[in-house]
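Why does residue order matter? Because the sequence determines the fold. Keep that principle in mind as you read this record.
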Amino acid sequence: MTVPLPVTLSLSDEQALPVDAGRLGDVARRTAAAEGATGEISIILVGTDRITELNIEHLDGTGPTDVLAFPIDGLVTEAPDPDGPPVVIGEVVLCPEVAAGQAPSGPDGFAAELDLLVAHGVLHLLGYDHDTEEHAAAMRRREEAACGRSGARAS
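Structure:
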């Protein structure tokens, strides 16, 4: 029997809305583990001003967005060399304020939207994209497996 390799997580909350950090971590780990990933993932929760800055700086975007992903080592499935550097999958930057504005209605809507955005961001770290309908469909399937919802669309 193969023992799954660990995915470690750090979470930094630099914004004001209350979130369930444990739930976000569980979604991130579950998403990465389903792809056989090993390494470290950072999740940073930021306000609209910071996500806007990052969106402009890194994607030439305008205004706030919900989630950004910054892969470093990406998908690594082999155990890292114990004498080598750690495997850093990457960093997911999430804006709960934007997520709240697009969350489905209902008592669990905000938390479910955060789940989806974390899964979406982690999948981007692991090399998934939604630049074609075929890629978007693959990403939607993995989001649904991780959190029961999907949001990826071809762009």
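The radius of gyration is 15 Å.
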